[in-house]
């Protein structure tokens, strides 16, 4: 009968059992525990299922309950398996006491007074009814003197010891419908008019949940962790830089979700979110590639310079030097305009260091750490070189510490942070759109922000860990060649990651258009 | 060092760019967690031109509703709100019952049928005459309970109603009355050649063994689909995928399952059949992931398809040699299946009819003490259901119980329906071989049956046997 090749299975079983003995036993124990916790006793059957419609009004709540008749055998006088209207009226007092105990509706601390009435059933000709009756339907009305403020339903109408019996209830409060499944382990439903989901501290639970979800979600592949790590390791980053980078990613991500949410809402008929994601991923990936290539070119050139030129003096670089160098290293413009700013500040966006080094006209093999600039507005576009086989740059970055790698600029961090947060997580978008669908936009915005904060927490922690860990590595007696190559390698890493993101996005784009 | 970095000007940079980056990109992409499924989808779309006629055409214009539960809940809220204002509105009650049935189908939770039945009863009480919708809703609930006789009786009260004809098709198909099912299917298509109607007729043709006509009906169904019928479109592709699977065209079957999932992500029917296909291909990891995907959507209450998923997972463990885990999963599935059985009502159904599934489980678990119960279950089941697969399961139970002669009679009855199913002939071959007449078995009947199995599914073999009885969908 069974054609599963028992002989082969036994042999494979023996081999695998030996190999995974302990794991198998542990798994078995877990499964057995779960099974013991959920398996019903022998008498369990589908007739344990129940269903209810609950309508919450101003001062009363009505429950139309369909339940297994076997739970009220005292009322089923004719043993038909279904309570008739007469049987309900005859046993009204007993039924009221029974359901009042098993199903309680609370308005705050006040229990509602229950009244039981029959529900009119169709009189279908017997020739059409083949299956026997198993369920009955009653209308339970719970009422209070005061209007309902905080409604709580405690449902305990289960066959004793049957863990898998359940009652599915639809609860209509105002114009909002909730579906809730009562089980022996989940017997209480709590709702508040106007804020049904978040009564009794549920709002805080939701916020905490979004925070944890964001944090957990950021640990999944993607989200720029590797890129952030590679960048911070290869640069002279400080804890402030790490925090700034994480916050930039978070803010970009939050704004991205909001923007995409709005786009989805207002342009759902024309643009599908799943069509936007791959393109955003592609843009993000290409940005990262561009950043990585520029970093890589700068760093590998510096390594070359260091090899060629035996400068060993290490002056203290000024802040502006650091900004100048790293700022240029992330520049994305393919055809930069050469300019000499009066001051090196964040508004300077249009030059690349290796094409316009002109801080001093008397070129020689080292550059100086001073912070001068030209006060005039002419531009230069030449690349000067000496007649020999080496080239050098006249920025201020050739005096960098040999171990720390490059200094960072806020601008470079901003660019990196934006690229990391540009693609909104679908999970966050789901949060926002679900809340909007429920008519609570404010809650959606709050949840997305909290989600992003969780994401930021992880990225910040990671960044700080890398920044501090880097100092530890500096104390290790590492060969100097490796340390010199580290910034270049990290830049290469960024580039490769960008390529990976772009390639993956490209696959999605192709799949979308295929 | 100089040579290393600057053998020639800029060459390391370009060398890295031209060689290193593509290699690293490939490695990075290949290590993505969803790489396999993404690649499969791309390959399927780009290379499997055979599946091209079955692409869904309305992605751009159709409303995307990945989770139909939200939409149905909105409908339920609307009708309940109407009923709050007018509690006796028969129309609102019928509409509410319809929404409940939709919810039952989407979630697989049996409780929704109780609500649907209750609402339909109230509708009928409010409007006893001229209310065919309520009667049809009761018939659909009866059919869901596998109370086919009751469903047909109710349908007979409004014979010309569209839903009534549909119920005649499905219920007669389930009870093995293929002539009546075929007549009803023709009538349904003549009336409105919709996706659902043509798919139903395709299923009837499949059961009759008329493969060419079945395929034509499937193709007509896809050609006639309109935007918005996402569930019907996804279901048709899944059933067509199963049609191809049973004929050994696994590539096309997989492409169709994936297309169904693209139309309706997370569709349990498609996921279960895809998992079965993966088991047959020996890709147990993928199969397990598809099963886990179904279980992940559970809301805490047992669903109709959960036992089948657990059985599938048990099968995977068994095939991997993890007998203990397999036993534990079978025990879980058994608990759920027994829960659906109404004690003392075997002959009438009313239990969402999972006797056959339980019998499958008892037989594949391989405990000799379970065999008599499997036979008993199937004896009860064939009183209400005599389709080929049910008969085949019964024959298998009889064979395991040593009642080989009876098994042969039953399997011949199944073959006589005309259905082209390799597993049916494979079982017939096993029964012939077990009859003890080895010479005859090897020389004639069994060999012929095996040949027929291979004619239907040229790839039928041990791997196909590993995945038997794990399919989902109408007709077994």
TrEMBL record, chain A:
<keyword id="KW-1003">Cell membrane</keyword>
<keyword id="KW-0171">Cobalt transport</keyword>
<keyword id="KW-0472">Membrane</keyword>
<keyword id="KW-0406">Ion transport</keyword>
<feature type="transmembrane region" description="Helical">
    <location>
        <begin position="489"/>
        <end position="511"/>
    </location>
</feature>
<dbReference type="GO" id="GO:0006824">
    <property type="term" value="P:cobalt ion transport"/>
</dbReference>
<dbReference type="GO" id="GO:0032025">
    <property type="term" value="P:response to cobalt ion"/>
</dbReference>
<dbReference type="InterPro" id="IPR011541">
    <property type="entry name" value="Ni/Co_transpt_high_affinity"/>
</dbReference>
<keyword id="KW-0813">Transport</keyword>
<keyword id="KW-0533">Nickel</keyword>
<dbReference type="GO" id="GO:0010045">
    <property type="term" value="P:response to nickel cation"/>
</dbReference>
<dbReference type="GO" id="GO:0005886">
    <property type="term" value="C:plasma membrane"/>
</dbReference>
<feature type="transmembrane region" description="Helical">
    <location>
        <begin position="443"/>
        <end position="468"/>
    </location>
</feature>
<keyword id="KW-0170">Cobalt</keyword>
<keyword id="KW-1133">Transmembrane helix</keyword>
<dbReference type="InterPro" id="IPR051224">
    <property type="entry name" value="NiCoT_RcnA"/>
</dbReference>
<dbReference type="Pfam" id="PF03824">
    <property type="entry name" value="NicO"/>
</dbReference>
<feature type="compositionally biased region" description="Basic and acidic residues">
    <location>
        <begin position="357"/>
        <end position="392"/>
    </location>
</feature>
<dbReference type="GO" id="GO:0015099">
    <property type="term" value="F:nickel cation transmembrane transporter activity"/>
</dbReference>
<keyword id="KW-0812">Transmembrane</keyword>
<feature type="region of interest" description="Disordered">
    <location>
        <begin position="357"/>
        <end position="402"/>
    </location>
</feature>
<keyword id="KW-0921">Nickel transport</keyword>
TrEMBL record, chain B:
<keyword id="KW-0472">Membrane</keyword>
<keyword id="KW-0812">Transmembrane</keyword>
<feature type="repeat" description="TPR">
    <location>
        <begin position="234"/>
        <end position="267"/>
    </location>
</feature>
<keyword id="KW-1133">Transmembrane helix</keyword>
<dbReference type="Pfam" id="PF13424">
    <property type="entry name" value="TPR_12"/>
</dbReference>
<dbReference type="InterPro" id="IPR019734">
    <property type="entry name" value="TPR_rpt"/>
</dbReference>
<keyword id="KW-0802">TPR repeat</keyword>
<dbReference type="InterPro" id="IPR011990">
    <property type="entry name" value="TPR-like_helical_dom_sf"/>
</dbReference>
<feature type="transmembrane region" description="Helical">
    <location>
        <begin position="12"/>
        <end position="30"/>
    </location>
</feature>
<protein>
    <submittedName>
        <fullName>Tetratricopeptide repeat protein</fullName>
    </submittedName>
</protein>
